[in-house]
Specification:
Shape: globular
Structural class: alpha+beta
Number of strands: 4
Number of helices: 4
Strand order of the largest sheet: 2-3-1-4
Helix content: 25-40%
Distance between the termini: 18 Å
Order of helices and strands: EHEHEHHE
Largest sheet: 4 strands, antiparallel
Strand content: 25-35%
């Protein structure tokens, strides 16, 4: 299992619209072969310790992907269009960075 992490900073004035966009976007991603689930997290600017984050709403989405092959297929075939859609709708109101987390181990996790 791989976590495909998407970190989003949205200017506060665009956050309600981007929230509605994400509510539609995440289910679309989960229809892609190999994507098994997603967790949407809120981050607080005060916890980031980065001054330019003030005035922004911060979210992280963890997509649970079954394999690197499935993720690579998404990155090549679907990601460019999905990214372009967000840029077209929100332009410089959003800042997004991504990273890939490869599972090493889990300890003490419950199913909840």
């Amino acid at each position: 299992m791989i976590i495909y992490e998407v970190n989003i900073a949205v200017q506060n004035d665009a956050a309600p619209d981007y929230e509605r966009f994400l509510e539609r976007h995440i289910p679309k991603i989960l229809q892609i072969d190999g994507f098994r689930g997603a967790s949407w997290w809120e981050r607080l600017a005060k916890d980031e310790n980065v001054p330019e984050m003030k005035g922004s709403t911060l979210w992280t989405v963890h997509y649970h992907v079954e394999s690197r092959k499935a993720l690579d297929s998404y990155l090549i075939n679907q990601a460019p269009a999905m990214r372009a859609e967000a840029v077209e709708l929100f332009g410089n109101k959003i800042s997004i960075n991504r990273r890939i987390l490869n599972h090493r181990s889990s300890q003490g996790l419950s199913s909840g």
